[in-house]
Amino acid sequence: MGFNKLTTELEGRPVLAWSVGAFNDCPAIDAIVLVCASSAQAELEQIARAAAPSKLKHIVVGGAHRHLSVAEGLGTVPADASMIAVHDAARPLVNEAMITRCLESARNTGASACARRVNDTLKRINDEGFIIESVDRTNLWAVETPQIFRADLLRHAYDEVIATGGHVSDETSAVQAAGAPVALVNTPEWNGKITYPGDLELARLVLRGRSKA
To answer: Which pLDDT score is estimated for 1?
Structure first.
């Protein structure tokens, strides 16, 4: 985006504050760990502490890839934690209801993630940009965050990823690679990720709609 999306103002608060605040306000969450880049650590820590003054326990510098960052964060989670949630702070529309639904599912299944059905027509293209085939969207879902797991299951999955030098794009992939099933929880509200400037405008509309509800 050409700027730090986590510090960008969204309806009067930085994007990060919306994400951290949702977990702070959820009674089922006991503690929060912030994993961030060293270049923005001071500013992000200030935002996170304001959004979660009592629940923010650790600020950790992440790695070059998501799985390395998550592994760093896991290292600060107390050994007696029973469940661990991982959330991409660039999804500021997360709320208590989403977190709670995903947590309840994870308590029953061991591993769950928020997700939405894929409704668009899907095509596979070649290196030149031409369509080579259609992709059947039946049973296809786009996986989001939060992703919530039984703590021992997530730790074991990441121990294997790190030990083998593997690379996973999200936590569900790590847990699946360790041989455990993952349940998906439908997200009825838009839980989009801030990737492009236009996503901020969509997020603003969603938040304004919630404030009027």
So the answer is: 59
- Count of beta carbons in the 10 Å neighbourhood of residue 120: 8
Q: For the domain that residue 183 is a member of, what is the CATH number? A: 3.90.550.10
Question: Helices 96-109 and 15-24: crossing angle, nearest 10°?
Answer: 50
Task: Output the pTM of the full model.
Answer: 0.94
- Two tokens at 120? 């668009």
Please give the C-alpha separations between residue 8 and each of 4, 77, 122, in angstroms, as whole numbers: 7, 28, 32
Q: What is the pLDDT of residues 30-73, one digit of tens each?
A: 999 999 999 999 999 999 999 999 999 999 999 999 999 999 99
Following DSSP, what letter does each residue of 94-112 receive, concatenated? --HHHHHHHHHHHHHHSEE
Pairing of strands 183-186, 111-117: parallel
Q: Is the pLDDT of residue 96 over 70?
A: yes
Q: Is residue 3 part of a domain?
A: no
Range of the domain at 182: 9-212
How many independent structural domains does the chain possess? 1
Segment 74-94, tens digit of pLDDT = 999 999 999 999 999 999 999
Residue 173 lies in a domain: yes
The answer to whether residue 4 sits within a structural domain is: no
pLDDT of 145 over the 70 cut: yes
What whole-number distance in Å separates Cα of residue 24 and Cα of residue 44?
Answer: 16
Residue 14 to residue 33: CA distance in whole angstroms: 18
- Two tokens at 16? 């990060």
Q: Domain for residue 124, yes or no?
A: yes
